[in-house]
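We were asked to recover a plausible sequence for a given structure. The inputs and outputs are reproduced exactly as logged, with field labels preserved.

PROBLEM: sequence recovery
POSITIONS: 386
GIVEN STRUCTURE:
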């Protein structure tokens, strides 16, 4: 086994644990409420603060990754996340907790831009393609895995065990990255006016629509799972399946991610995107109509399955329409995606769960039509950034 393989494994594992932190607070909302004596509706701020600072961090470190050596960003960023995660155990009140979560989110944003930049610089074409696919699948897997491992540690041990555990995981990832990643001189790049480039991208109609779709992808994931947790806290009824089993069954939804490339070659990226969005809409309707645990399981699987296909299709289209501005276009996509996740986590505590189900079903029908309009616009010509 060569060093590139070990580095690839290190990046995939690290990506799963970094992305897991977007979701670790979802099953802990009641524990946060009890620990800091706050209304349960305020507990969603723990996810919101992390995600918003993470999204801004992606923009910042996306620029930095063009100027600094990736290994340093990855290694020291992971060490910072480990130390900040441990520091959460010392938060004396909820305001301090939110402040540390914000810093933790900003530090966690070191990973994705530097990891993808490292893959493009040091891996050959075949390894690069596999690595990017596995890292992206790992990010999606983390949506369920993060909730499961967080709930297990909190309810099996203590609330603070979550932060001790994740701090240890991040420290192991730090050591693994430090031992496996190569050092490499970073060529000097020309300085750019970031604001000008962002405004140029936002004015471009196909990218406007893709960023609109991007905003609602993780928005719905956070809204669904966060809203479901709040519903279960306030509901007197019990599911025959445990919440952990409910999350575990939802992992079935990542299966389509492994077939994204064959589906895209067979049907085309636009069609796969449109049908994936309609899958989300159709998958949420049974829960609204019947609202029992089996319909909720179907919705959970459909939500993850849809997301596992829509995200790579959106990335492909953003890269295609971004042309020479591809790197900045994808950085702005990442910011939009995570901003939506932050807003979704915040709204999950205040919107009734049945309204979430029907609202998102209608929303994704609209987004499917929006994606179809992008294809029609492409077929009519004039698809370049000016």
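RECOVERED SEQUENCE:
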């Amino acid at each position: 086994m060569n060093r590139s393989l070990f580095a690839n494994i290190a990046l995939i594992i690290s990506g799963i644990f970094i992305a897991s932190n977007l979701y670790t607070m979802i099953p802990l909302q009641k524990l946060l409420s009890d620990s800091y004596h706050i209304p349960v509706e305020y507990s969603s701020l723990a996810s919101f603060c992390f995600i918003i600072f993470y999204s801004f961090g992606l923009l910042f470190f996306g620029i930095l990754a063009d100027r600094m050596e990736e290994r340093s960003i990855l290694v020291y960023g992971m060490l910072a996340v480990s130390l900040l995660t441990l520091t959460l155990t010392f938060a004396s009140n909820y305001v301090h907790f939110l402040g540390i979560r914000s810093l933790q989110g900003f530090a966690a944003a070191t990973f994705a831009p530097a990891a993808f930049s490292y893959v493009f610089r040091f891996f050959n074409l075949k390894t690069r393609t596999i690595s990017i696919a596995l890292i992206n699948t790992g990010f999606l897997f983390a949506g369920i895995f993060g909730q499961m491992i967080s709930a297990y540690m909190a309810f099996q041990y203590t609330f603070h065990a979550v932060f001790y555990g994740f701090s240890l995981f991040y420290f192991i990832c730090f050591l693994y990255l430090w031992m496996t990643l190569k050092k490499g001189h970073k060529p000097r790049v020309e300085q750019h006016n970031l604001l000008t480039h962002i405004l140029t991208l936002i004015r471009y109609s196909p990218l406007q629509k893709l960023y609109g779709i991007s905003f609602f992808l993780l928005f719905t994931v956070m809204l669904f799972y966060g809203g479901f947790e709040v519903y279960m806290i306030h509901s007197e009824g019990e599911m025959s399946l445990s919440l952990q089993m409910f999350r575990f069954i939802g992992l079935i939804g990542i299966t389509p991610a492994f077939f994204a490339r064959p589906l895209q070659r067979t049907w085309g990226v636009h069609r796969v995107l449109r049908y994936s969005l309609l899958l989300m809409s159709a998958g949420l309707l049974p829960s609204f109509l019947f609202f029992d645990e089996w319909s909720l399981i179907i919705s959970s699987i459909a939500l993850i399955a849809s997301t596992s296909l829509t995200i790579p299709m959106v990335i492909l289209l953003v890269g295609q329409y971004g042309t020479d501005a591809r790197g900045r276009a994808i950085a702005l996509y990442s910011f939009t995606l995570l901003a939506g996740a932050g807003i979704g986590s915040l709204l999950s505590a205040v919107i009734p769960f049945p309204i979430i189900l029907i609202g998102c079903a209608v929303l994704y029908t609209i987004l499917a039509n929006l994606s179809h309009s992008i294809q029609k616009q492409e077929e009519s010509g004039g698809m370049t950034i000016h």
